[in-house]
Amino acid sequence: MTMTELPPARRFPAERRDDTRRLLEDAARLSLRPRRRWLTRTGVIAVAAALLTTGGVATAYVAFRPAEHTTDVRCYSKVVDEQGDDFPGTTVTTRGEGQAGRTADADPIQACTDIWRQGVIRRGSRTAQGPDGRTHRVPALQACVLENGTAAVYPSGDPDTCRALGLPRLKR
């Protein structure tokens, strides 16, 4: 026999033919039945969206936070990670009257801009000084929130200053 010739035909017993047909039909029926999946595509998308949303909200809360003590602002003279009472700079207290007799909230950047302009604090100085009657140059300022909830303003033009100090940026 050569490769171009077909083998001779053989007889296929009837009982074997019926068994084979039944097996094929059962296999086809099982493959056409819808399978129950543990997670459907919609379920996966819903879980992924929930995780992304939760992560985004948590990140936003950690990255930006409102100040809890809104009438006291710490104006730093240099970028340092000192949160105790002996920090380089001064604390500005703005206790004015707002609407309906409530204490007015301070604008931390504006409060520190004013004392920089007056020369009360100067770059790198350890403590505050008296105003000298001249107008001083104000550096770029970044507002963060300290662990105790007080706003802290640092002389820096880098928008990542708060993150570098491990502090959230002030939510304005």
Task: Walk me through this protein's architecture.
With 172 residues, the protein is of the alpha/beta class. Helix content is 34%, strand content 16%. It has 4 helices and 6 strands. The strands form 2 sheets. A 4-stranded mixed beta sheet has the order 3-2-5-4, covered by helices on one side. A two-stranded parallel ribbon has the order 1-6. Strand 4 (141-145) and strand 5 form a beta hairpin. The model has no long low-confidence stretch (mean pLDDT 79).
Furnish the topology, listing elements before pairings.
Blueprint: H1 14-32, H2 41-63, E1 64-65, E2 69-76, E3 89-93, H3 108-118, E4 141-145, E5 150-155, H4 161-165, E6 169-170
Parallel strand pairs: 1-6, 2-5
Antiparallel strand pairs: 2-3, 4-5
Q: Determine the N-to-C terminus distance.
A: 91 Å
Side-by-side strand order of the widest sheet? 3-2-5-4
> Quick check: average pLDDT?
79
Order of helices and strands: HHEEEHEEHE
Provide keyphrases for this structure.
172 residues, alpha/beta, 4-stranded mixed beta sheet, two-stranded parallel sheet
Short description:
The protein is 34% helix and 16% strand. The chain has helices at residues 14-32, 41-63, 108-118, 161-165; strands at residues 64-65, 69-76, 89-93, 141-145, 150-155, 169-170.
